[in-house]
Structure formats: structure tokens, C-alpha cells
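#data-curation
PF: Archiving a pair of folding outputs for the training set. Convention for this channel: one message per protein, sequence first, C-alpha cells after, nothing in between. First:
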Amino acid sequence: MVTGILRRVALAIVVAALVTLAGLSLNRVYSGQLLVQLMAGAALAAALISALLRRLPAWLAAPVSVLAMVGYALFSINVSAHAGGVAGDLRSLTFDAARNAVPRLLTALIPVEPQPDTILAPVVLAWLAAFAGAELAVRARRPAAALLPPTLLYASALVLVGPNSDVTLWQPLVFAGIGALGLVVGSATSGARSLRGIGNREKAVLRVRTATGLTAGLAAILALVVAVSPLVAGLIGDKPGDPRRYVQPPNLDVIDQNPLIRISGWAAFPEQQLFQVDILKGAPEPTPSATPSPTPTPSLDPFSAEVPPPPETQTEEGNYDTRLRLAVLPDWDGVTWHMDADYRDAGRVLPPVARPPGAESTLPETYPPLTIEERITVGELRGRLLPAVAAPTRVDGLRVAYDQSNGSLLTTAPLAPGTTYTVTSVSPSVDVNQLIAADVPNGDAAARYLAVGPSVPTDLSQFAQKVVQGESSPYLRAIALQSFMQEHYAYAADAPSGHAYPNLSFFLLADPSLGGQRGTSEQFAAAFAALGRLLGLPTRVVVGFHVPAGGGTVTAGEAVAWPEVLFTGIGWVPFDPIPQPNTPSHAVEPEFMPAPPPSSTPPPSVTPSAITASDASSGPNGGEAAEVPGPSAGSLASGVGIGAAGLLVVALLLVMVLRSAQSRRRMASGDPARRVVGAWDEVMDGLMLAGHSPPSHLAAVEVADYAALVVADAPGRRHARRPRPAAPELSGLAKTVNAVAFGGRTVFDPDESVATSARDRAVAFRKALYRRRSWWRRALWWIDPRPLRRRADPRGK
């Protein structure tokens, strides 16, 4: 009796040990040892409960084990919440962990911090695997089958770890050894029972059959090894797949998709209090001078390449960029700078920012990095992006997602006034001596940082080459571009938003009297980065904030965008093309401006009709008058010109009348379904007239998103007394058009209110788009005949 109990307990311990090994394997992507401790406790408790309840019916033992599992899960949630610094009561933590256990486990940044939502699934699976294995080993007396649940859990842990940890050979060997021990203990128990009460002859026959079966099994195993070993040997050097790449990371809100366009909005309300910064460690220094010089001063930040910063801004360690970053925008398609971020749920401790291409092996640092700890209290800042110094290493007080490629932070919930968090960051120092001789990476690794969009204006390429003419070093080219922009362009907080190629061309090349050569930090940063890419410099744009010396309130007026250039062996280096305050700028010299296009008509020449009678009397032949065309020829030419002009005016008036009739017919006549489609046609015509016809492959909902970007990036003009009207959101209209055009009336039959709403949205959108156009596009808006021949298509094709 005692021997049987000991054997059952031994089998339960074997199963628990196998499950613990699975937890030990999974713990390689976790920080600390809390996960493996909780999984070991779950495995041991589940296996022992199964062994002790063997005498009870299975239908009763299972509910008892489930109740015990629930209690242990609550205990694990409470322990991990205290260890991980997660605030909240046990009830809210449990519901949140149960709802997000699997998604956050698959999206969490490695190393994963043991928190309620990242330990719940492993603990529950460990309990179930141990209970199932113990039931098969103890109650069903199937020791071989009992190894299946722990083995499946171990294999799942290996798949989840994937390529994110080093290979450990001792764990699978120990797992196989413990499994063999379980088979020995189980077979001894079952063998002793099977040999009771049979004769010697039957025992001999049984032994022969057992030996024959073992021999056949061994031969089959050897044959399988011979067949599979070449395939396994070929896979030794391959890395396993990572299932985490198939899981979609958190999506950005609309307000955060392109934070660069928020610069002009913040500049319009500079006194708006966005957040409060309290310096707890490593007070940030005021940003040094931004004026460069052809001969950089050693050991300076690139923002101060002419003269050393004032003594109060220096430290014994060097100079550091301590501005807060909100977002990093590495991608440029000729229309907008945007993020392609891979945010992963993270714990309090963050891994280092990944080395960019070409900077994997950096040069030795001249000065040690500066550790900065700040407490930030949110005021009127909106969205989900969190400001922090360049390379955050720890965040307390808030659940965050982290993009390891650039170090930007995202909250799991939208920001609200009063939200407080503490962030610890590392700000490296840059030695200009290293930059002067540094190269820039190229090839596929840096291709995304050199992309310039499908169509590059020729005048901008020529302009960039003229600005840096004679500079061979990448760093000196960047300094020359920075210096040129500081000297020739003016900062204007009221400049309109926009950073597409047309906006940058207007900012860089337009005459100052027309509003050119002035802009916000949006235009300065985007223009520097775009021109840098045209010069072969890998660039990106960063949006962030200046920090008052010693901390304090950060207002909307402190928002700023700046460019960064990637150097081989060093990494990303910031530049500041914005001129210093109260520094006058002078217009771009004519030699830098693009040459006007050659005229297709020959230069004017003196015609006989311009010769007067007095001129004719003094011709080369003494008093011989030159031949002068009769007045009838001039009258005929004038009549033809006046007639052509009249026909043109009549044609333009006819176009305006037909266009007006077309709009009324579309949106005021017919049934509601026809008027909804007509309103969408008006939206499509507006985009075409604005010079931004959507690509033909876009569906209606995608066209609505495209229209929103067109309106957001439109330069337009600002009027103090007549502000630009707000553009309505078109996604609802796009869905209505889809339902009407493709679903039929059996699916959706719009009424008068739907048709009226569609008309109002179309009219408001066209009005907003018209007000944001340049003067010459507004002049051509009503006389353009293209809408009269465009074929209507609800999808925008």
C-alpha cells in the first residue's frame, strides 16, 4: 500500500518536473525567475492533487482541480502585479489579464516582464498539462501517454521562444532523462501487476513477446533515425520561425499617424500647456547654438558646430541632446513623412534601442552617456505617443508599448490630463572629430532612409547640388545644407502646414514676397531631410519638444521637428536647420534658383507694320519709302484675335453652365440613392480639380483616407478674418456609397436624410479643398472641363 502511494507520488513529481522544464525553457524570453517559479508551483500542485484524489471519481476530481487552478491563478496575478508594479485591484487585473493574455504574450517586447497578462496563460497551461499528465499516469496507468501533455507544452514553449534566445542543449537532454525515468517507474508498477497470478510458462511467453516487441520498436526507431537524420542535419544552421511576426502590433490613432502635421497646429496656440517635466536625475542642458561653421569645433554636439556653447550649458562629460522625442518618422514617399512602427507591449525595463544599418559596430565614445530621469505629468497633450529622451531604458507608472528600432513609446490607452509616468533615458554624446571622416551607409540596408518617392522635381535636385557644391565629406555636406537654410530662410510660426514636394518647392524656391522662404520647423526639418536624401544622405525626421532648463511646463510653442542623418559607425546624428531667434535672413541668391524653362516661341522682331512714315523717309535709299502693309491686313488680324477671344470666353461660360447643371443634376434630382452616388462623384471631381486624383486601385473607403491626407497636406493660405473651413470626414459617405452602389436596395435603401447628409458633406469637402488651393488652381477650378467627361464610378476609378 505504502509502495503504491510512493510510486503514484513519484509519477506525479516526474510529470511536474517535465512541466517545470517547459517553464524553464519559456523563461528564456522573460526577465527574472518569477515565471518559472509560478509555473513550477502550478505543475506541482496540479500533479499532487491528481495523485491524492485518485480514489475519487474522475468527474469529481476534475472540478476540484479546476477550482484549485482558479485560486492559484488569482494568487499568481496578485504576486506578479506587485512584482511588476502594475496598479489596480485584483478584480480589474484579473479581467484585463484574461482578456489580453494571449495577444500581449505574443506582442510583448523581449525580455518579457512577468505581469498579470503575461503570466496568466503560461500558468494555466502548466496546471492543465500537469493535471492531464498525472491523470494519465496515476488514474489510467498509462505512463507513456502521460508524457504527451508535458511534451506538447515543452514544444509550444520552444516555438514561442523561436529565434529569440540562445540554444541550450542541457534542457532537452534533462527532459528526455526525466521522461525515461517516468517510463521506468510506470512500467515497474504495471509490470508487477501484470505478472501476478500467472504461471511460469505464461511468464516466459510474455517475456519473449516483450523482447520481440522491444526489438521491433528499436529497429523502427533506428530506421527512422537513418531516414530523418539528413533532413535534421540540414536544418541545424537554420533559425526557427518566430510566431510573433504574425501578430499585429498595436495600431496608431489617427492623431498619431502623422505627428509632423501637428506642428503648425501647436504653433497656432503656443501657450497651450501640454505637459509638466520634473527632472529627477541628470538635468538636461539648454539646447546649444545651432549656427554651424565650415570648420567644426571638436567634441561638440552637431547643433553647435561653430562656437562652443556657453559655460553653463557644458558638463565635464560633454554635450548631449536632451530634447524630448515624441515620434520618429523614417519613411518618405514624396507626399508625407510617416511612421512604420512596430510597437510591442513592454514591461518597466526596456531593451536598448537597436543599432541602425551601418552602425552595428560603433566607434568608441569620447564621453560616457548621460543618464536622465524625468517625471512627466500630462496636461493637454493628446494621442497615445509619449515624450521621452532619445533612448529610454525604463518606464514606471504606465503600461507602454515600445518600438525598439527607434526608441519611441506608446501608451496602451489614450492620454488623459493628470497621467503621470517616470522615464529613465540614456543620451549619448557625439564627437565631431569622428563625424568629419565618417561615411554614410548605402545599399538595401539603408534603402528606406534614402527613398525619395516616385517623382522627384528636377529643380529641387539641382538646387541641392548647388548648395553643397565642393563639399566631399557627408558630414560637411550636411553642415553646408544646415548653414544655407539657417542663413536664407526665416522661421514663421504662422506658416501653413504641408511637406509634400510642392510645399517644399514653394518653401525653398518661391519669392519671399509671395510667401516663400518662410516656414515652421515642419518645413525646415522636412526640407533638410528631403534634400539630404537627394544628396545621398540617409535621413529621417523627429518630432519632439524643447525642455525648459531645469524642467517645468512644456507648452505647444516648445514643439519642434528636426532632421537626423545616419553615419556609419556612429548612428543617428541630429541637425538643426532653423535659424536662431532674431537673426535676419536674406533671400536665396539667383544663382541657386532654377533656370526658367526655355520659351517655345521665337523672340519678337521688328515687323514692317511697326515702321512709321517718318522712319520710312529716312531709309537707306534716301527718300524711298519702305513697303507698309495696308490697314486692311492689321484689321483682319485684330478681327481674328478678337473673334478667337470671344469664342474662348463663350466656351468657358458654357463649361461653367454645364458644370453647374451637372452638380445640380447629381445632388438635387433623382431618387436618394442616385443623389448619394452623385455626391460621391462631386468629391471625386474635387480631388481631380485639386490635382490629386486618387489612384485607380483604391476602394471607396481608401479614397476617403486619401482625401483626408490631401486636405491635411494642402498648403493653402491663412486668413485672419476668414479662416479656412474644416474638412468633413468622408469615411461614412464612402461606406454609404458602397452600400448603395454594390449592395442594391435590398441591402440598403437610403432616405431623404441620407441623401441630404451626403450632399452637405460633399459640398463642405469641396469648399474646404477649394480654400486650400493656390490662387491659380482656384482660378481654373470652375472652368476646367474635365468633370464633364469623367466617367462616374463609386470606387473612384
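PF: Second:
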Amino acid sequence: MVGDHGRTPLRSVGGGWFAGIDELDPGTDYAFSLDGSEPLPDPRSRRQPSGVFGPSRVVDDAEFAWTDVDWRGVSFPGSVIYELHVGTFSDTGTFEGAIAHLEHLVDLGVGLVEVMPVNAFDGTRGWGYDGVLLYAVHEPYGGPHGFKRFVDAAHAMGIGVLLDVVYNHFGPSGNHLNRFGPYTTDRHQTPWGGAVNLDGADSGPVRRFLLDNARHWLRHYHLDGLRLDAVHALVDESRHHFLTELAEEVDALATALRRPLSLVAEYPHTEPMAVTAREAGGHGLTAEWRDEMHHALHAVITGERDGYYAAYGSVVDVATAIKGPKEDLPRHRFVVCTQNHDQVGNRAKGERLAYLAGLPDAKIAAGLLLCGPFTPLLFMGEEWAASTPFPYFCDTRDDELDEAVRVGRRQEFAAFGWEPSAIPDPIAMSTFESARLRWSEVVSANAEHAEMVSWYRELLSLRGARPELSDPRQSSTSVDVDDGRKVVIMRRGATVVLANLADESVSLAASGTVLAASAEGVVVGDELAFMPPHSLAVIA
């Protein structure tokens, strides 16, 4: 070990572990030299004030004065999630900047904020999914103290915080983990190369590295849960799957803390086993992302049929997505959206739904999402039809890696038929700057922004006021469609949602009181409902 204290040889304590100084004072910088190598940061570093190639710094959690001692958490069932990226959510791109906009989320009706990864990665700007030091908070955002301030402020306003974590691979720049141990293995392959070593030789300490990381965020940062990125790439052929063990550990911690802690997994397709109780043979996770709802709505509304949208395109697909998996599982265990960082950011130009489909159809998508049986997720800015795109971006690292990123993006977009020349350079500062939200739009006189944010507030208010709209039982939702007329009728107990996605007006057999309408001209009588083109109505 090398640092402010000089050089201290480490001694083996067995099992591949080494020990040296018993304790370093808070604020002390240190690093490890392996067999005379250059100083390397601690794989479990809590802070990297000089970036991922610099020394680690000791953090004392007792130094932060939390004010959320009475925080008892947020119920995941019934909550609406709001996904944000710290670097582009505010003008400053920091936790402090994000705190200034939490009141907007309270007014909107958000229960949980999902923060895209904040662990340390090379450079100052990026999505965070190429992190290399999983215990450290990205310094340009505000470091450990800044993140704690953000969580504490959110709790003071009644909002829970989920953190997006990446356990399926490690970033390429500043990654020294395999010099410290067998953190990855060639026994399994993933899109990023060798898989994280969860079931091979000496995999025990690797699993513990990730399990402890989850506990680290939940305990030291008072988080309310974690979103687990691309868990299908966590290849584990052992008898006790890593996700099951992680759920067990988090449940034990939640019991000790006396408040709920959530684990939300991302799969490419619905995996009922993930959210099935452990005693019934599942992993026992709280919820999983369910992309089928997004794909079905997006294909119908935009007309896109390339890539994974090829399997969708009719309102029948929308009805199938709303009905959900055939398994009789509570629908709050499935997180659905019309936009998220992947679906917006992994487009050539990062276009948002309102830009692609227009405001009327984007409002229909929001109505079906927020009146549906699943746990809704909103992506930052969608609630006011933000004019800013959200393209993929990262910082300059080295010429070879930067060019590989550019080429990889072009190849990925080929399946969608997007012109390579139209793809913004992900390395350019201008690409990052283009993604920064313009908060002035929320209070501007622009009719489009005002109309959209008013619509979202109306829908979220209805969802909170009418229990049937968040009823998670499979039997709580029925859907009828008229494929020829592009009509969807979703029944949620005493509330009915009528959606006309066609270019012509339609009359439907329905009666009741209009609770919300996305367009002028909706008329509901004693027997018939008149729906203008591209409109949605919620009726009692």
C-alpha cells in the first residue's frame, strides 16, 4: 500500500486476501502497488477525487449529517418511477442541481426516482454504464457527499431513490480488477467480452464483491432500492444463482433497517421466474423491466417496423402487452414505459416520442401507460415533451477506444436502417450538451409544453385518486381492440380508457362521465362515445 502514510507491505491472511494498516484517517489518499507495479486505486475505493486513475481516498460515513432518521421508505407497489441522468438533468449536471428540481417531481406525483449509474467512470461525461470502480461516486457529479445530499433531500420531500447498478461487466478504461483477482472469466461470453466470474474458480470473493456493493449503496447512502442492468448477462450455472443470493441479502438488510428495499431487474424479454417468490422457485426480485409494452405502443404510434419493432405493429399487440404475461403475478412487479434511457438514447439521434409521433399520439401513450396495471416509469422530460434529445454520449478517452465506440454505434443502428452519417458523434461535447434538459420549457408559454405537463399531472392525479387504476391483480384489466379502426378499450374496474389511434373520428359503445380527455371534441353520452382522431379519454 502506498500513499500519504508512505509504503506499507501487505501480509497474506489466507484465501487470497491481504491486510496491512488497520485503519487510515478520513481524507487519507492511498493506492496499491502489486509486485512493484504503478499505484492502482482500491477496487473497493469509496472516493476518487482525481479520477479513476488517481489514488483512492478514505471516506467516513459518520461525517454526513443525515436528516432522514424517520424515513420509513416508499411502497414500490403503487409508485410511479421517474428515471433521470444526473449529468443532463440540470444546468450544472450535479446532485445539487438535481435537488433544485425535486419539487417538480413532487408536484407531478412521482414516488420513486431512478438515478442512472453514478459509480466512478473515466472522464467527466457519460451514461455511467462503463463504470470501473463500483463503490465510488462519480466526482464531477458531487462525489459521496453530494449523492448523500441528494438522497436526503429526496427523502425530505417524500420521494424514494433507486440507483441503477451494473454488475454484468466492467468498463474498459481504468479497469484494473483482473490484476487483483479473477473478476471475469472466459468460460462464459457476453456482449462486453468475458463474463463476470460468478460460478468459476475463486468466484466466491467476486460474488461477495458485488453483494457487498449492493449493501454498500443501500446502507451507507440510505437508498430505497437498486435497478440491476441487463441481468441476463449475469451468467451463473451454480446451484445458488447470484440473483437469488442478492435478493436474500437485500431482504435481510431490509429487515434490519425496518424499511422496504427493492430490486428491479432488466431482462430483454419478460422472465416471470425473476419476480416469482423464492419459495416458489423464483429469484424473488421486487420487479423487472418489461419492454413489450414500449415496443408495441412505439410500433403502432410511429409506424417503425425495423429491428425489434418487426414483431409489433397492430393494436392487437398493444392489447397483448397491456394484458401482460399469462402467469398470475401481481402487475406491479413489471415496470413499463413509453420512453427510457435505452429506448430514447439508443436511437441514432436520441429522439423522444413526442418528436417522432407528435403530441396527440404521445398523449395517448401516456394515458395507456398511467392508467394501466403495471408500475409506470417516466423518463426525464417526457412529461413536458422536452425539446432536447437524449443521444448516447461519452468522454474522450483514447483514440482507439473512441473510434471503436463510433464504429460500434453505427453497426448497432444498421438493423434499424438509420443512416450512419446522421448519427451524432458520441464523443463530441456538443452531443452531450444537446441532451441537457431545458427547464425553462416547463413554465414557458409554449402551448405544447404546457399542454403536455398538464396532461401528465392530470393522469397522475387520477391514478392516485382512483384505486382501480393501480390495482395489480391480473383480473383487474381487460382489453378490447378494433384493429381495423385502430381502437383500444381498456377497462380498469369502474374506469374505462378509450383510445382512438386512427386518422378518422370513431363512435364507440360507451357511457359515463369524462374524467380526462387528451383532445377537445371528446363527447360521451348515454350510449355512445365520440372520439376525435388521435385522442384518448378516461371515463367513469
